[in-house]
Amino acid sequence: MSIVRKSFLILGSILMSALCQAQFSIPSMDVKLYGGASLVEMPNVDFEGIIMGGEINVHINENIAVGGFYSRDFEMSFLGEFTEYDGDQLMYGVQVRLSTDRSHKIRPYLNLNYYKSEFVIDYIDFRTAGETTGYGAGLGILVRLTNKLYLNAIDLSIKKPSKDLFLLPDATYIIQAHAGVSYNFGRKR
């Protein structure tokens, strides 16, 4: 190999490593763990329970974050007109969070999301299941505890199923309320 070729190879390697270092450095992001309640709004019956979940969001800038979420029921029940059955709910999707500027204590935010949800009802002799996708929006308040730790004091969201579920044909909305903690890490923007 000629000296010119070796020089270009070494220069190219140094340049590529510098570019990769700039591109692949850890971005600013937050991880949130929460618990709360979920209610599927239907006439004459209730599908309600306790949920637990988490989120991870990558900060685009100070006011916009994009990420994913996952929640699963801890205890869910389907209350029919005369009986009660056990149920399960799983929900996951993507979201965009729009927040106000950073403040000393309180930071309100709005999130817009697209989700997939799966429901199961355990009747006495058999189980039925269904799934749907949809979109939703929510409002929340973050309370600053330390430089990187926030208390998610309240997050209220309403989600609209895009199609009727076989087992929950009259479901109009899924309403969720939860609280938890959020930890920010990575470089500051």
Largest sheet: 8 strands, antiparallel, barrel
Termini separation comes to 44 Å
In the sheet with the most strands, the strands line up as 1-2-3-4-5-6-7-8
Q: What is the rounded Rg?
A: 22 Å
Question: Structural class of the secondary elements?
Answer: mainly beta
Shape: globular
Roughly what percent helix? 10-25%
Number of strands: 8
The overall pLDDT average reads: 79
Explain how this protein is built.
The chain is mainly beta. Helix content is 11%, strand content 63%. Strands 1-2-3-4-5-6-7-8 form an eight-stranded antiparallel β-barrel. It is globular.
In summary, what is this structure?
With 189 residues, this protein is mainly beta. The protein has one helix spanning 3-23; strands at residues 29-41, 46-59, 64-79, 84-99, 106-122, 127-144, 149-161, 173-185. 25% of the residues are buried.
Record keyword descriptors for this entry.
single chain; about 190 residues; mainly beta; 8-stranded antiparallel β-barrel; 1 helix; about 10% helix
Outline the fold blueprint:
Blueprint: H1 3-23, E1 29-41, E2 46-59, E3 64-79, E4 84-99, E5 106-122, E6 127-144, E7 149-161, E8 173-185
Antiparallel strand pairs: 1-2, 1-8, 2-3, 3-4, 4-5, 5-6, 6-7, 7-8
